[in-house]
């Protein structure tokens, strides 16, 4: 592995998120770059995420008044500079020695939300202390409830403002590019939060049983686990990895306060639809649920997977998201120039989002209605039992 | 910056507009070429403009009579050789020392319309004197009404025949290619028309306010400004940068005499639909307005963004334009061979347009009906409140 | 121009029509290759012709009986080996010193139809004597009726079996690749049939008149000329270059015995739809005309532009053609290996067509019904006044 | 031909089926690779097979219970590890000296089904003895019933559990890449099963008769031959090469127990639709037949052509297949690393399939319903007389 020296200033040819990817390809060891950049399988979903954004168009209005304009918004009672939150990225010391601490500091400097991963390479307590802006903790269910609960309690203690529980990764997806590049976690990068948790005892398999279907999946969480988790914490509970509207509804029924429509950045099930395409269906499900549960606070909808531009944030909001999570670009910026890089990236994206508001004639995120975009016919699938989502359907 | 010597004759391998772009890439300094050729953001709209033209097909009729054939047409009472007008391009001295004077002379030689930009590098008075063919003046609203009015009065005095007010550029779009190439206006190229106008005082921002949303946009014009402008001049008023049919209707209500359906050549909001796709909706809006306002002269519809061939002009007319504006190709031709290059370009495009008339069986621009083209289903979006525009809808 | 030595045997790597194009690119002078291979304008129509064939799929039936199988068919009373006819290609001495004589001899050897061009580089009389298989004469209207009639009379005398009058080329299309390559007809290649015809006197143009619209097009033929031509010959009259169903109907009303649905191989109006896409509409028009004119012999429908495979012939027949014309591939084969090359090409395509019959379960050309193919929705345009042509419409 | 040394271990950069193709390109003589890898004609169908899989998306469900999970299934009374069967591939000694014996041994090791080809390079009896897992015999109709029957009887004797009769290859498709590469069967590779069968006497052709249509096709089987074959054996009879639903129905009427929806891997009729696109129509036909013939065992539907991933197996099952045949990848793995390679390939694909089950929330193949996937509108064609298959049709 080559040694990596992060830059201490931003090269003038870095002017957007994709430029960070280009530079990160040079800055990172090949196997790390491949591990991060790749999607699962044939990367159909990875490409699909980007393609979906490119197919949505923005319909600008001219000469509108801008006398109350602002990109800010509130999520779970906290105020943020824009509808962008840094996604939970595992093992950020792969990118930079300061890892999550640098990223969190940058988010803090920009008043941007930040989600700390269960698989952070710095402990959740240290990350919590990086800046004063509100943070959320991402939770992977552990093999034992005791271990899961230990993580939740630590997050509560450390002052995290919400739990983001990931449900789309019971098993790891097919990561062929990572495999071909021979990626392995280096010894000095570890899951700091899990160091003291005892691993579960191995489960013996009968003949003809499958390691995947009868080994790993036997330990995978189900809806009962989510109900249990809901009963264990008073923090807002956000379920990450929802693609099907029925799963959205089930999560809400069990008490979820928020959903992240996500396909794990194309890293889990290859062939899964772009999360942006599922978003309008999930939004409709959430709205229908809210209408029939007037005493519940309406759930928050976040969108993950494929955001590379401020205009992508705009499109996600027009299709039903309240805010978006920003993943790989933060990792790339971190690897190129540490906290400075992440801060520059976040500022650039915020400015792009503000320019999109200005040029489209929207003063605030709340002004971004469905009518502000053009969605191709058949952009979202027809799902039995869910209402249709055609371009003609306004 | 390398010195640029425009050619004094046209190389034999330049036989169409795209050939000028190819040569201009060599003739221009890299950063200037990048600045001109690029679109905003990921250039989705830039590519979309070209793609839209390629998707429209022409349905030729054979053996028709040609006994009254002509490509000429009238706009606002003036007669032109064809439905092509040179678009308002800023800072043409970037391309050639003679700048707008050379371009205007070429347009004059071909009886082609010409629009002088607020940001011309030669003063509007000098441009007005380049040839006798009628010209229009493009107006950017200035930060003060006094400054705006000063420009309008100078244009009236200099004999311009119409005001083309641009409304789609309150802020500058994201120009990443230009930024990466390090483009900056050279010292010897300036906005000649603005030299004596006092800049507005800086507006102080509160904490948490955005330079874009609360700084620049607070000075941006709104519909009230357009109404004011309408009241200040008797010249035909053309509103440039209309994409949404509702904005078209609003401009007409406020007294606009013409509209330019345009996305600023893909340089303003990336993700904006191709102007050609919006054209049929705007045309319908203009026709409906004319039908309900029989005492007003019917407004003129121009189309901007993506014209590279005489057949593109034909397609734009079939979809509802009265004429088109021609932008980047003129800049390229100017940079390659000065006035001679622009004249050659305009002649080539006019001949292409005439060949398209001849081969399609249309004697005049007025003969180009909607039935002369095939428009793919879903070419134009469905917009709530606007009538649909399907291929089956005749 | 480099000297060209045609091969005397077929290289083993030539196994299909496209292989001849690949070899011809080497065998021909660059400017000649560019002139022949290119389409007009941006070659949208050239590509569209090929694309259309690729979008039609063949639905094979298995285990059918083959006890009366044959690829042969009759056209205007003559029997041919398959539904393929060599198209009228101008100036074949550009490809080979023996020009049309070699091509005609090859067609004769394969019992394949052959059309001699007005612009043949060998006289129509010499071509007529090359082999005994029936041939047709392609006619361009001349500037004077006397000259046109002289050509018709010579064709009748020489024993041609039909007149194919081309109506889609009143002016030459935009041939940029040919222009850039500097193509010009060499001195030793001439339009042999026109040598003794007096050119028309030049037509003076008024000021502001266009050479194209008021010069060339003033001499262009119209429907009256077609009616006159019909009255002058008893030979079957085939009108070549029909794209619009209304023009098909008009030609039939004036007495045409056949139509060639063609866009001149993408060399005339760029942006014209693929002829294959218009074919079903033309076939419907021809059938409707035949139904309402029971005393007329039903007109023959030919298809031109884009045939490169035996399966393309199959697809054209399924969409309504009685037979197809084969253009550029013959020119390429002629340039690579003279008469031998053309014969090899025609045999290869005939075998491909026979294999397609065999594998699809069709015994004869007449067995190829619309149900034998899958046509994408929106493959053909909706034309006002013509019935629709959707995939669902059976 | 270069000598080929199969690997004795799997290189670490082989992690999926496509990696075997990449390595096989190096391992195999060029002409053999071209012969195997290529499709017929312009390879439209070859590409179409892959494209069809990429267009189907999987809609995952989260947090489902996995307490009875298994990838196993039964076919014709035998139990297999997963719904994957090794397809009948001719002449496997082209890939490896041990040929079919190595492939069969690998299938046996993985409890995977295996089909021995009529054109195997090892005798069907030797193949039958390679491992104890159940195998099927693929039958090509021979020119005489006696020869066909001899093969059936030998297969019965050798213990094959089903007859797979291929009906889509009466003539060989157009194999241009194979021709250009000069592929010919080497002397040491032969159709071992046919060595002792007397070839049919040559059939004399009349003048004007075609070798293809009147020679080869006169010997081709028809439905009467299938009825005869059905009457000759009590083994399950599977008809391979069905594309049209009407042919599926006809095969069922004549007593077929199973169907393979296949276009011969794009090697027979180029232009044939992807087998995956026809699958839903065939499944519907089979279900309708089963509903109207309650006393018959419901027929088994297999899918062939284009499987490269475990997720492809999942998609095929969701669209109506009971299991899939796996062709070229086995040949590539055999050529790269013999039995070891095939075993590794089969294990990799089985794990991919299990991961897809796990990530999509399906415990077993039977859980994979139509609702687990998103099928684009117009994915399958409308066929007159068959019910439609739109995405909206649930």
From TrEMBL, chains A, B, C, D:
What is the name of this protein? Alpha-hydroxy-acid oxidizing protein
Q: Which residues form the FMN hydroxy acid dehydrogenase domain?
A: 9-378
Source domain of life: Bacteria
Q: Give the family per the record.
A: Belongs to the FMN-dependent alpha-hydroxy acid dehydrogenase family.
PROSITE patterns in the cross-refs: FMN_HYDROXY_ACID_DH_2
Report the cofactors. FMN
- Could you confirm whether the keyword Oxidoreductase appears in this record? yes
- CDD domains xrefs: alpha_hydroxyacid_oxid_FMN
Task: Name the Pfam families on file.
Answer: FMN_dh
